[in-house]
């Protein structure tokens, strides 16, 4: 049973925006399965609504994923607690605010609010994955991990360069994460997107563990003029959300743990 579940996850992981449709033979080759095994697995996932079989006999994600996504977002305490704070920040300061978690070594965006001065950041839409090493959110989340875990993430996903400011060496990343833990916030100074700066802060649960991160995304010219103010505001927002999740104690704190 466990093996079947793992194979099912492997199938679902193949579907991306770049490749939303797969055939039985293609999936079998990609996962190292026999065609018969792949076909049986795909039929089971289609019967459960997680996949949809096209008239041509190929497969796409099924509509049940939308239903599960709605339930997740409507019932997740983190998102429901963070949303009012994010809306208040965007309304007050006019900027874009992001909420994200670390999911299998990458930053997964859970929510996003935009103010009247915000610039459009298309790559950070809800449900998007981004590399952790080049974003303030990712650095906050990586800073909560042990060095071994950060190394494994870097080996798995790499440290690709997006702008001239992107960190691409592991030693430099470790030094940056030490700074994050010392400051309590992380910066992205035009590291993922040129002309865009971010400052991120951790969100802690009732045990004191970092479970998510919150950030401001601000045009570079405006950010450099008000860097300290944005830092103070986002840190205070992170503290408020953490306390609403049951955290008590000095904020922020960094209890590294293996994921």
TrEMBL record:
Q: Which PROSITE patterns match?
A: HTH_ICLR (PS51077), ICLR_ED (PS51078)
Q: Which residues form the IclR-ED domain?
A: 64-247
Q: Which residues form the HTH iclR-type domain?
A: 2-63
Q: Keywords in UniProt for this one? A: DNA-binding, Transcription, Transcription regulation
GO terms (BP aspect):
negative regulation of DNA-templated transcription
Top-level taxon of the source organism: Bacteria
Task: Establish whether keyword Chloroplast is in the entry.
Answer: no
**GO MF annotation list:** DNA binding; DNA-binding transcription factor activity
PANTHER family named among the record's database cross-references = HELIX-TURN-HELIX TRANSCRIPTIONAL REGULATOR, ICLR FAMILY, TRANSCRIPTIONAL REGULATOR ICLR
Protein name per its UniProtKB record: IclR family transcriptional regulator
- Organism the protein comes from: Thermus filiformis
């Amino acid at each position: 049973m466990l093996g079947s579940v793992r194979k099912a996850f492997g199938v679902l992981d193949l579907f991306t925006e770049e490749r939303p449709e797969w055939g039985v033979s293609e999936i079998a080759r990609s996962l190292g399965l026999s065609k018969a095994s792949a076909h049986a697995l795909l039929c089971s996932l289609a019967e459960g609504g997680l996949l949809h079989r096209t008239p041509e006999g190929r497969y796409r994600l099924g509509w049940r994923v939308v239903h599960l996504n709605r339930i997740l977002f409507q019932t997740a305490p983190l998102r429901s607690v963070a949303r009012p704070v994010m809306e208040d920040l965007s309304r007050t300061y006019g900027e874009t605010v992001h909420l994200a978690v670390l999911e299998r070594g990458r930053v997964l965006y859970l929510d996003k609010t935009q103010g009247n001065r915000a610039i459009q950041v298309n790559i950070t839409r809800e449900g998007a994955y981004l590399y952790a090493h080049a974003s303030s959110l990712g650095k906050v989340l990586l800073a909560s991990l042990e060095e071994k875990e950060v190394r494994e993430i870097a080996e798995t996903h790499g440290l690709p360069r997006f702008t001239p400011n992107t960190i691409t060496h592991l030693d430099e990343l470790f030094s940056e994460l030490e700074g994050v833990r010392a400051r309590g916030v992380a910066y992205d100074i035009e590291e993922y997107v040129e002309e865009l700066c971010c400052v991120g802060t951790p969100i802690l649960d009732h045990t004191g563990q970092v479970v998510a991160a919150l950030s401001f995304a601000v045009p570079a010219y405006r950010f450099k003029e008000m860097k300290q103010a944005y830092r103070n505001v986002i840190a205070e927002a992170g503290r408020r959300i953490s306390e609403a999740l049951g955290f008590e104690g000095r904020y922020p704190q960094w209890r590294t743990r293996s994921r």
